[in-house]
Design brief:
The protein is α+β, with helices and mostly antiparallel strands and about 325 residues long. The strands form 2 sheets. A 9-stranded mixed beta sheet has the order 1-2-3-4-5-6-7-9-8, with helices on both faces. Strands 10, 11, 12, 13, 14, 15, 16, 17 and 18 form a 9-stranded mixed beta sheet that branches.
Length: about 325
């Protein structure tokens, strides 16, 4: 008799049903497993019972947070697992995922994670957890989470934790829901001439803005890629200063690679810690992450250099400003 899961979908916004044939000797009884978003006092009591069974104190402050989603998994009506999600501006944090001690090792944690992924599916940032060292880290590693940064002491959990983020595959650079190359930046001497040239190649203008230094810039997209054009006017009074800054690289032409890591980390600080651990501390970082506004997007930005000194920039989208509150570039 089969023991494989047979998922037959959603029956509403709250319930997720799973049917599985039990092993032989159980008279073929069906196992009814469902995950519900806690709406009633009974749901919350069930969640608290499982939470405290795990040996952790009930975190009522987090549960009552306006951004919280509390879920409980029931097997044939009996509560088995609990999960608490906290939604941030761009991220979702798994604050807790506990399975009743008598039911561990039977796949209920994985089933709860499947529902968590559904709840977080509109996510534009990253799904992450501050996992307790030891069993928690092993559990989340199996589910596809990757360690980021150093261990920290979690005051609420009263335990040493390590931040872990769900690994995301690198896909098309143009989509905002991806991890991968965000754009290639090119310094140009005449914006209109360059726009005409790349327009001829099939790329089109998507956004205009000014750099922090006041230079005209824009994004153009097409042919499966995105370019940033930044205009350096060679006749400007700032020519000498621009040349001094650009000693290592040509004034006009390729500038830097820019990768969007919004879905790879909850913040750039932990991402840099992760890169430093992978490089054995040999990574050259230009400075701590800074924040800027580009068009309607609030970005965190940091830059490293490759072995040949080529700048590689990492950006993380932290939020969006309504277009009505931003000024329109006058060019």
């Amino acid at each position: 008799m089969s023991t494989a899961g047979d998922y037959y979908g959603l029956t509403g916004e709250e319930d997720f049903y799973v049917v599985r044939d039990l092993a032989e000797g159980d008279e073929g009884l069906a196992e009814d497993v469902r995950v519900v978003v806690c709406r009633t006092a009974d749901d919350v009591r069930d969640a608290q019972m499982i939470w405290e069974n795990s040996g952790r104190p009930w975190d009522n402050d987090s549960v009552q947070d306006a951004s919280a989603t509390l879920m409980v998994l029931r097997r044939n009506g009996t509560p088995v697992a609990v999960a608490l999600l906290l939604r941030e501006v761009m991220n979702v944090c798994i604050r807790a995922l506990y399975v009743h001690m008598s039911m561990r090792g039977r796949g209920y944690g994985r089933r709860m994670m499947e529902r968590i992924l559904m709840e977080a599916s509109p996510l534009d940032g990253v799904l992450y957890v501050d996992a307790e060292k030891g069993i928690d880290m092993g559990f989340y590693s199996i589910l596809g989470f990757e360690k980021l940064g150093k261990q920290r002491f979690d005051e609420r959990k009263q335990a040493w934790t390590v931040r872990m983020a769900l690994r995301q595959p690198a896909v098309s650079p143009v989509g905002h829901g991806s991890v991968g190359l965000h754009h290639t930046s090119i310094r140009v001497s005449n914006m209109e001439r360059s726009l005409a040239f790349y327009g001829m190649l099939g790329l089109y203008l998507t956004e205009k803005f000014h750099t922090q230094g006041g230079l005209r810039a824009c994004y153009i997209e097409g042919l499966g890629t995105r370019l940033e054009l930044v205009e350096f006017e060679l006749q400007s009074t700032a020519k000498e200063e621009v040349v001094a800054i650009s000693r290592r690289h040509p004034l006009i032409g390729f500038d830097r690679l820019v990768f969007d890591v919004t879905k790879a980390c909850p913040d750039l600080e932990s991402f840099l810690e992760y890169l430093q651990s992978r490089s054995g501390g040999a990574l050259t970082v230009s400075g701590p992450p800074s924040q800027l506004v580009q068009g309607c997007t609030v970005l965190s930005v940091t830059t490293v250099t490759d072995p040949d000194g080529v700048p590689v920039e990492f950006i993380r989208r932290d939020g969006v400003i309504p277009r009505s509150l931003t000024s329109k570039p006058e060019w």
